[in-house]
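Researcher: Go.
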Amino acid sequence: MHIELWQWILGAGAAVLVGISKTGIPGTGILVVPMLAYAFGGRQSVGIMLPMLIFADCFAVLWYRRHVQWDKLIGLLPWVVAGLVVGAIGLWITGRLSGSVDVIGRVIGVLVLLMLVINLLQGRLGNKLTPTSKIGIAATGTAAGFTTMVSNAAGPIMSIYMSAHKLPKKEFIGTLAWYFFLINLSKVPVFLVLSAVNPQKPMITLQSFKLDLVLFPVILVGVFAGKWLLPRISQKAFDVAVLGLAGLAAIKLIIG
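Model: Structure:
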């Protein structure tokens, strides 16, 4: 896989944002999705991004392990698993068809915008339509599982879900850290199987993993930058940044 200079630049920028998203501002992670997709193509970018996320997850779990709120995740996980299964089927189907990746990206963007609208209007819509109700948990978990499987783009959905619980910054980061660490690890064998059954359109290759190894030191820069940034940004600015970046990235996914 020959990589041009501009691809290296975008890849390095994405690596920094991955680190920042795991230890500082979660919303920045969604910006990585269109950056890597533009540089390496939609399907291949998903496989390139996954090892980056797991590497950064390790630091987030280590630093914020005492701040996790497991009760916020237990009821969500069965629905996430259901979404992962649907997403895996979707990847298998799109791997056999041409021109389907952009359609999935637009669906993801619409889902994220819908979640944002519900979050912003939850005071008027009532508890039944919030991400913390039974219906909301089912919808959030399924959407998060699907989007993380097909594009590693579940960050905004999970950020909206966590924002609805009004958690302090460290609890917010710590809970997301453990969630994504476990979910991302579970995706590795799925991606390897999909690559084996469809070698013409693999998810993870030896070349993509070598690229990840080169970019791991760059991720470290983002990891430490995010840890430095977190205590220096106010709770209000933190919430606005999370939701605002999620909205901008969702629009980007829709318009392509």
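Model: The chain has twelve helices and no strands.
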